[in-house]
Amino acid sequence: MKPFAGAPAAPPPEMLAKAETLVEALPYLQRYRGRTFVVKYGGHAMGVPELARDFAEDVVLLEAVGIRPVIVHGGGPQIGAMLARLGHESRFVDGLRVTDAETAEVAEMVLGAINKELVSWIAAAGGRAVGLSGKDSGLVTARKLRRTTRDPGSMIETVLDLGFVGEPEAVDRTLLDVLTAADIIPVIAPIAPGPDGATYNINADTMAGAIAAALGAARLFLLTDVPGVLTRTGELLTDLTPATIAGLIADGTISGGMIPKLETCVAAVEGGAEAAVILDGRVPHAMLLEIFTRAGAGTLVRRG
Fold first, then answer.
1. Euclidean distance between CA atoms 53 and 124, whole angstroms
2. What mean pLDDT value characterizes the chain?
3. 229-238 long-range CB contacts below 8 Å, 24 or more apart?
4. More confident position, 17 or 81
5. How many CA atoms lie within 13 A of 253 on its CB side?
6. 172 vs 144: CA distance, rounded Å
7. Would strands 229-230 and 236-237 be described as parallel, antiparallel, or unpaired?
8. Residues pairing with 189 in the sheet
């Protein structure tokens, strides 16, 4: 037997750093095990293969540690590109694409292709996923979305017809519960039938928020193209409530396209989700940084 040579050599610093990261993540792993995360995946990051691979790996990791991820994806840029190739001009009202019958057909086709691609990325990362839409098994029932505009001169309100644009009216969680209990990751395209039998295109943020509320999700993640909610000087706001959001909208700190995203977050947390987070989907592993580190990585919206 060789004589005891003293204390073992210290491992390399990078190995220690990895071990410390795992230890830091432990309480969050324990907290969220068995809980549901609803993730809206969208924005221009969807077109970058490296980010798609990272996203799929993150989702599979969440499922592997006992978290139940449910994915809702967008596809606005891809739909716009396909419409342009077909010579069909896109028209928007308040950020929503006016959707005639031809546009609705193109949107469903493009979203279906994106859906299968995401399922393939998750499979390549070692996970099991199934592609769905709101049309499957009565998952989501839509109603026609209506918007009004006010004439600045007469102050008369006019109802705008956006065509086949809808919003969730009801969510049946039965199918999602069956799939997540079997460790299968649902990947959902944001289209759903209305009571009139027509297929409606739904904003992916809105779809994800409604599903998160119905599932009582621990987190709703909106992955987008910005770091989160910023002050006028560019600082990230990390912790918001419905009351603080209303104040920031009133004073102009929050404006433009961030307002509907935060309205989705507020609706989700008031409807049953524990919290919602707006994250930059272009940052590698942004979800993991938000969930498993003390500092976080985006803007958290909670009930207050």
1. 8
2. 88
3. 229/254, 229/258, 229/262, 229/278, 229/299, 236/298, 236/299, 237/299, 238/296, 238/298, 238/299, 238/300
4. 81
5. 18
6. 18
7. antiparallel
8. 133
Mean pLDDT over 256-271 rounds to 92
Tens digits of residue pLDDT in 149-194: 666 665 666 667 888 999 999 999 999 999 999 999 999 999 999 9
Q: What are the sequence ranges of the domains in the chain?
A: 38-76+106-302
Q: Does domain 38-76+106-302 have CATH number 3.30.70.100?
A: no
Composition of the chain by helix, strand, coil, percent to 5: 40, 25, 30
Q: Phi and psi for 113 in degrees, rounded to 5?
A: -65, -45
For the whole model, what pTM was predicted? 0.88
Q: CA-to-CA distance for 124 and 109, rounded, in angstroms? A: 23
Cβ(187)–Cβ(132) under 8 Å? Answer: yes
The CA-atom distances, in angstroms, between 32 and each of 39, 71, 187, 240 are 15, 17, 20, 21
